[in-house]
Design goal:
Elements: E1 24-27, E2 33-36, E3 40-45, H1 49-58, E4 67-70, H2 74-84, H3 92-97, E5 99-104, H4 111-118, E6 127-130, H5 137-143, E7 149-154, E8 164-169, H6 177-188, E9 191-195, H7 201-209, H8 211-228, H9 233-254, H10 258-265, H11 271-281, H12 284-302
Parallel strand pairs: 3-4, 3-5, 5-6, 6-7, 8-9
Antiparallel strand pairs: 1-2, 7-8
Helix pairs in contact: 7-12, 8-9
Length: 303
């Protein structure tokens, strides 16, 4: 177990134990310690759709001073600062040096450049949270020089409204109990989390992270059918969306198999079983599985 200073309680504005707001010890790459002012607990490198969704949800639990971020788009930085009250820093290095938990909220193709950028600015004290598809813990660790602590996660965009689902994996032996709790607090602040082995992370992308896009298409198709039969589009969207929400809650809250729940709706010779038979005829199940196959293959290509 690594010997680290304990985290302070959630809600404090520093990420290491300090005295009277002073500086805390921090290991630098040559093994010496220097005194630094830790300004934030969580720092985001990149502020795309998913990073922004996560940060907005975190603000329901953390103070603005607990969070910082950086992004190349200066106009977007100014907009986010205005909307959230969270203060940005100028560079990736600044973000790495001023937060303990560093969230790499960037696309996979930018990882090599960003990791090279912060390599000499992160230490064993930092916890790196990677949320890109296809990027393994080992690859991030290697590019940061090894002996770093990495959390690999795959959230989805419903995090924006606190209804996200995130697959998470990390080597628990490398983390203190307070840090494990912080990791759970982080992901549960914007929805549910599931700890999975790393080999399942590509599957998480297929069935959870990318799934909102499939479901939006399904809602849109249902609503289009409603419009076809004379229903106003806004009413059709509400009815289709709530049908999906209610059905998902039935799966989660009853514990019943989805097939059994489907059977409960299908009366013998009734309207629903006729509709289900057409979905089977036109290959709904196969289309969904083939879409996930394509998503999985793309995750492999990203490595």
């Amino acid at each position: 177990m690594l010997n680290r200073k304990p985290d302070v309680a959630v809600g404090k504005s520093s990420c290491s134990q300090t005295t009277n707001g002073g500086s805390s010890g921090r290991e630098v790459p040559d093994g010496r310690w220097r005194e630094t002012k830790i300004m934030a607990k969580i720092g985001f490198i990149g502020m795309g759709n998913i990073g922004y969704a996560i940060m907005r949800s975190l603000l329901n639990k953390y103070k603005t001073e607990d969070i910082t971020f950086t992004d190349l788009n200066r106009r977007r930085v100014a907009q986010i600062e205005k909307e959230t009250g969270v203060k940005a820093v100028d560079t990736n290095q600044d973000c790495a040096e001023n937060a303990k938990y560093i969230v790499l909220a960037i696309k996979p193709q930018f990882y090599d450049n960003v990791l090279a950028d912060i390599k000499d600015h992160v230490t064993k004290e930092n916890i790196i949270i990677s949320i890109a598809p296809g990027i393994t813990i080992d690859s991030v660790n290697e590019k940061l020089g090894g002996d770093r602590r990495i959390v690999r996660a795959m959230p989805n965009t419903p995090a924006l409204i606190g209804e996200g689902m995130t697959g998470v994996c990390y080597d628990k032996k490398l983390f203190e109990e307070t840090e494990k709790q912080m990791i759970s607090n982080f992901f549960e602040s914007f929805g549910m989390m599931e700890i999975v082995p790393e080999y399942m992370m590509n599957a998480v992308v297929c069935i959870s992270s990318s799934a909102p896009a499939y479901i939006y298409m399904f809602i849109e198709a249902l609503a289009d059918a409603g419009v076809k039969y004379g229903m106003p589009r806004d009413v059709a969207y509400r009815m289709a969306a709530q049908g999906v929400v209610g059905s998902a809650k039935m799966v989660l809250e009853t514990g019943k198999h989805p097939g059994a729940l489907k059977d409960d709706v299908c009366s013998p010779g009734g309207t629903t079983i006729y509709a289900v038979s057409v979905l089977e005829e036109y290959g709904l199940r196969n289309a969904v599985i083939k879409a996930c196959d394509a998503c999985y293959e793309k995750c492999i290509d990203l490595k």
